[in-house]
Every structure is written in C-alpha cells, then in structure tokens.
Amino acid sequence: MITRSAIASSLLATAIAVFPATAQEVPDDLTVMPPVPDDYQPPVTPWGDPDLRGTWPLNDFAELPVNRPDQYGDRFWKTEAEIASEQGRVEQLEEAYENEDEEGTIGLGHWIEYQGGARRTSMVVSSQDGKLPGWTDEGYRRSALMRASWVGGQTFDWVTDFDSWDRCVTRGFPASMYPFRYNNGVRIFQSPGYVVITLEMLGTRVIPVSGEGEHWPASMSAWFGDSRGRWEDHNTLLVETTNIKPGASALNMATRGVPPNNTTPMSESAVVTERFHMIGPDTITYEMTLDDTVIWEEPFTLRVNWTRDDDYEFFEYACHEGNVQLRNYITASRAAREQEYARGTHVELLDPDAGPPPSMDPASRGVGNNEES
Fold first, then answer.
1. pLDDT of 362
2. What are phi and psi of 223, to 5 degrees?
3. For 83-97, how does the pLDDT look when each residue is reduced to its tens digit (9 = 90+)?
C-alpha cells in the first residue's frame, strides 16, 4: 500500500486542531439520543435530486466503537471532562508523526488516521445500553465455520482458509461502510437515476434511485448485495439491500468494538436498510439497520456522522503487493507443523487470552482491535 507521508502534516493538523464537530446538539440529558435533524434543505442536482456528491472520509469517527464500553453506562454522550481527557490520544498521534518525520522513517504514525474527541459513546443507537444484540445458536454455529487470518491458532492450507478481505476481494457489507485504520475515503457520485459510492478500500456500489424495479431473485447474490434506493424526503436517501452474498464478515474486526476474529456471519435472508440524511452543508448522518434474525437475536441500528472533506485524496489500496501473502501464510503454517511433527509433538494452540494475531496487513501489528470495554 502507498503510505500517506506526503499529506501527513495536513492530516495531523486536521486531527489536532479541533475535535470533530458533533453536527447535532448534545442534549442536557446524556442518556437521550435525539432524532436526526430534518430541517436542512440541501442543494439539488441539475435533474432535481438532493445533492450528496463529494468526498466523505470516515476518519473522524474511527475511534468510536460500535459497542459501547461499559464505563459509559447508559449514556449516548460523553461528558466534557471525558472529551478533554482524550487530548492525550491526539498528542500521541502528533508525537508519532513528528518522530517519524525527524528520523526519516515511516511507521504506524503515518499509517493510522484516527482522530479523537467524538462526543458519542458508541455507534449503536437501537438500544439504551449501546451494544449489539446477541447471536442466535445458528449465528454461533456459522461463525465457528468461518476462516480468517484473524483467528488465533488457525492453520492454513488453502485459499479457503482465508476470508474475503484476506484475499483482497471485499471487506464485506455493511462492514465496508465503516472505518478501518486508513484508506477510509468514501466518494459519492450522482447521475439521473443513480447514486454511486466509491470506497477507497475495495469496492464501488452502484445504486439505482428511481424507486422502481424488484430485487433480484433469491438465487442471485453479490458481495454488496442488490441495493435499491429512493429519495425519502427533501434531504434523505433510503437504500434497501438484499441478496447479500454470505461469506464475508458482516462487521470487520478492525472497526472498533465489534465481535472478534472477523467471523461475524450473515445469512441469505439479511436485509440492510441505510439512510443518508443530509443535515448540513458538510454533514451526512448515516444510519444503517441490519435485520438478520437468523444470526442476531434482533435487528440493530448504527448511526454516525460523515464530514465532507473534498481535499481528501484517494490512494491506491494495494492490499498485499505481489499477491504473495496467502502463499506465505500457507508455507509458514505447514513448515511450523512439520517441525512440530518431527519433534513428536503437535502444534500448540495460542493462548486464548492473548488476543488476535496480527492480520495480514502489516500496519495493524501492535494496534488493539476489539475494544468492548
């Protein structure tokens, strides 16, 4: 992957100058989540649709966990004191950039694009505890069958031992609509009858917005599914997606506060409903509801704010250059087992409390992923 050293200073300035705007008034009662504002009238395209076009990188809520850490109780919002304490994290990012620039090295400081200071305590808004619902027995069964480089103690013998993200195919859906640690760019294009969402990391969605046409037959599926959109009101695009191909993790482990191991399953009957609310000239409130009761005990909704940054540049997501990583994992796994067998012992499983192994992405090493608490 191409690093962002050329624009590191501008990214840092964005991160440390101010905390990201809430774009929604914080209520006096921090346990209340107000409805999405609907009073903004966005400009329209030449053909009369609300104009969502632009670049909307997801960096400014990349540290917001999906599941609410227990320390916040039933609060949707942090206190002013808690926000002030996060300045230390921003200062760490600043120091990492400066040290690498002085030393002429490129390390995690130039890879990670987090920004601190989000007032929200979690992405989940469908429950007062701010947490995802539990899995069904079938959800646990399907998760146990999934394979990925993120699973501790797993062996590797063929490409089917890796997930779709390992293989540089897709991060999955709706996982792709949430932040990783970098390459978080989202760019929206529009033409009469269509909205196109280009993702900096693996993929482009083409969404008809005419409000007409039936979904594909059940026998057809795709990684991003079959999305059909319509304009719900003067500032909101509603998109319903069905026919999502099972196999990819529904939520990526590298998004903070999600289930571990990148093995969150999705069933053939899953329905994802998205709302893109334009609530200001530079803010979209993005809501996603996943209804998949084969896997989850009940549907759930995540809500985040996207901030426009049309100066943000897309860089190539080269994934793993030379396409050698799968082969290397397989070769190393087989070699380790051969050595153990030669000594008359079996491969020892990793300590289950040691946390996930490094992913196939070298930039993720040493960075925590699962932040449930």
1. 40
2. -60, -40
3. 887 777 667 766 777
**pLDDT per residue over 329-351, tens digit each?**
999 999 988 888 888 766 555 44
Contact criterion met (CB below 8 Å) for 241 and 224 = yes
Q: Among positive and negative, which fits the CA dihedral 132, 276, 35, 65?
A: positive
Strands 283-291 and 300-307: antiparallel
| Structure tokens, 300 | 């759930």
Which has more confidence, 144 or 83? 144
Q: Which residues, in sequence order, are CB contacts of 7 under 8 Å at separation 6+?
A: 313
> Residue 193 above 80 pLDDT?
yes
pLDDT at 117 over 60: no
Alpha-carbon distance of 68 to 120, in angstroms, equals: 9
Nearest alpha carbon to residue 252 among 195, 318, 291, 302:
302
SS (H, E, C) the chain: CCCCHHHHHHHHHHHHHCCCCCCCCCCCCCCCCCCCCCCCCCCECCCCCECCCEECCCHHHCCCCCCCCHHHCCCCECCHHHHHHCHHHHHHHHHHHHHHHHHCCCCHHHHCCCCCCCCECCCECCCCCCCCCCECHHHHHHHHHCCCCCCCCCCCCCHHHCCCCCCCCCCCCCHHHCCCCCCCCEEEEEECCEEEEEECCCCEEEEECCCCCCCCCCCCCECCCEEEEEEEECCEEEEEEECECECECCCCCCCCCCCHHHCCCCCCCCEEEEEEEEEECCEEEEEEEEECCCCECCCEEEEEEEECCCCCCCCCCCCCHHHCHHHHHHHHHHHHHHHHHHCCCCCCCCCCCCCCCCCCCHHHCCCCCCCCC
Confirm if 58 and 178 have CB atoms less than 8 A apart: yes
If you average pLDDT over residues 177-187, what whole number do you get?
Answer: 88
As given in the structure block, the two tokens for residue 74 are 């039933």
Here the tokens at position 11 are 């990214």
Q: Is the pLDDT confidence value at 319 over 50? A: yes
Percent of the chain with pLDDT over 90: 53
Residues in the chain: 373
| pLDDT tens by residue, 300-314 | 999 999 999 999 888
